[in-house]
Amino acid sequence: MTSVVLRRVLSTLPVMGVVALFVFSLLYIAPGDPAAVIAGDQASPEDVERIRAGLGLDRPYLIRFFEWVGQILSGDLGTSIFTNMPVTTMIAQRVEPTLSLMLVTLVIAVGVAVPMGVIAAWKADTWIDRSAMAFAVLGFSTPVFVVGYLIAYLFALKLGWFPVQGYQPLARGVGPWLHSLILPSVTLALVYIALIARITRAAMLEVLGQDYIRTAKAKGVGQRRILFVHGLKNAAVPIVTVIGIGVALLIGGAVVTESVFAIPGLGRLVVDAILRRDYPVIQGVVLLFSFVYVLVNLAVDLVYVLVDPRIRY
Amino acid sequence: MADAAFAPPPGLAVAEELPDVIPARKRLTGVWGFVRRRPSVAFGAALLGVMALLAIFAPLIGTVDPGALATSKRLRPPSAEAWFGTDMLGRDLYSRVVYGARVSLIVGFSVAVLASIAGLVIGLVSGMVRWVDGAVMRLIDGMMSIPPILLAVALMALTRGSLQNVVIAITLAEIPRVARLVRGVVLSLREQPYVDAAVAAGTPAPMIVIRHILPNTIAPMTVQATYICASAMIVEAILSFIGAGVPPITPSWGNIMAEGRALWQVKPTIVFFPAIFLSLTVLAVNLLGDGLRDALDPRMAKRL
Fold it and tell me: What is the ipTM of this complex?
């Protein structure tokens, strides 16, 4: 058991290495010469060279890469070109809104999608199933910002139930916080619901065809118990896996949702950084998001190794 | 058994021939038959066809120059003259949205084709050559752990915004998915008896790939390519929307929405018209993809 867990944990190392290499190369090949920028317009070529050597920019690629990795491991993501603030500080200021958005989205999406998929599988090939799957195709096809503007128009502008834009920090109370997050979260949840519902339905159909389900029915087990205890429990592996994989959708979608609803989160930060070509910030956020994604999927796999006796690597 | 030569053995009765009580079901053929059998695929195909026609014949269908400014006619509501109204610079929204179809379709199809070809080559090599496989798969695992939108955004930050760069950035972000799919298919095909037979018969390795492996990867890859096309259109619109896509001067759906953003609370039409077109186009491609999947892989069709 320990060796299985250890092997799975170690297998993330090369992945993280590739991500780090890619993100580092991003800054390495980025246009613009930091040394020339720091030296200013009046500097002679010798000055620029001296600054370059002072920054260590004249040394080979791989050496600089490993130094950079060392820096990151000690918690230093560099300094923003635009604000001169440490990137870690800038990220720390923006983590709360994005994390809140993702958590509320996750709760909404799983809460809606799993029952939807289960019911669609139970009522397979009826109009309930077909409309659930039609909804899933629509959810896949409607870009996040289209959904965002549509529901903001309906529920904020026309009906006035929710604020059109903005974010209320958790420190001001759970009520206002949740109120400001409902529309963005529903927006972001839609595509996620489509993904999870489809997989849930497929996994459930597979399980519901098994002999032990027929046995349970023959014994007179209640329908709800069959679906949610005998069925869902055994269909859980692909469902939880896709919830983990779908975090990539959440991250990509958060970038857009935060723009639509003017939420000052990490997505907004990276968009602003791109417009200003603030490469250290782009690097930091991409790195953070990717590591979170890798860790979430690692956690999903590990939970299964620990909980489900059928899984062995 | 109406054969005259056939005589039933004594004591055995022969039933009379029964008339066909169940008339043979006439299978509808032609276009109408297809529409009846697969309404959603037909709908998707028709919708995509309309979008393609719009894009191709954009200058001929009642449009004016999508970049023409008319400051005296700013923010007009939809009318007979400007079907979708005008934007904050007085440009005709209908013309801009119709021309926007060009950007979306070009990006969608270019990315689908380029990512498929590149992914196919990488996947084939990785699946066939053992020592390449490990390194390539680690690289792909790493690439796939960066969310595609973020990867495309990061790549766009390196270059100037142009249609070509957008296509390249999205293609690079999509290649790993195809490569991994093709590799998986190749690995399972390698174990097939007919591949063993070809090896035993002395078929050279390149010939095995071309004759026995490659043709079997085409079906799953085509399905994947459709989904990539849909995803590329969405990513393109997102890139434009956040200002990292095609130059603002190009009327793409994402750009039109980005321009309409500041005013959307008072003039929602500027955002909604491109939004509707984008969603319909992506829906059309997805419906086609589902249809292709069902047609090419009946086993999958039952499950999903």
Answer: 0.82
Chain A residues 35-54 with CB within 8 Å of chain B = none
Does the beta carbon of B153 lie under 8 angstroms from any beta carbon of chain A?
yes
Question: Are B26 and B48 found together in one domain?
Answer: no
Whole domain around residue B128: which residue ranges? Answer: 40-300
Distance from CA of B304 to the nearest CA of A (A): 5
* CATH topology for the A92-307 domain: MetI-like fold (1.10.3720)
Domain with residue B161: its CATH number is: 1.10.3720.10
Residue-level pLDDT, tens digit, chain A, 313 residues: 677 778 888 888 888 888 888 888 877 777 666 666 666 677 777 777 777 776 667 777 788 888 888 888 888 888 887 787 888 888 888 888 999 999 999 999 999 999 999 999 888 888 988 898 888 888 888 888 888 888 888 887 778 787 777 778 877 878 888 888 888 999 999 988 998 998 899 888 888 888 888 888 899 888 888 888 888 888 888 888 888 888 888 888 888 898 888 888 898 898 888 888 788 888 888 888 888 888 888 888 888 777 777 766 5
Say whether both B19 and B99 belong to one domain. Answer: no
Structural domains counted in chain B: 2
CA distance A286 to A297: 17
Residues 56-75 of B with CB under 8 A from A: none
Which two structure tokens, joined as six digits, stand for B88? 């904050």
DSSP A86: B
Pick from B234, B257, B303: which is nearest to A202 by CB? Answer: B303
Question: How many residues are there in chain A?
Answer: 313
β-pair partners for A79: A86
- From the list B143, B147, B304, the residue facing A251 with the nearest CB is B147
> What residues of A are in contact with residue B234 (Cβ under 8 Å)?
143
For residue A140, give both structure tokens. Answer: 């896949």
Alpha-carbon distance B217 to B33, whole Å?
Answer: 29
CA distance A147 to chain B (A): 9
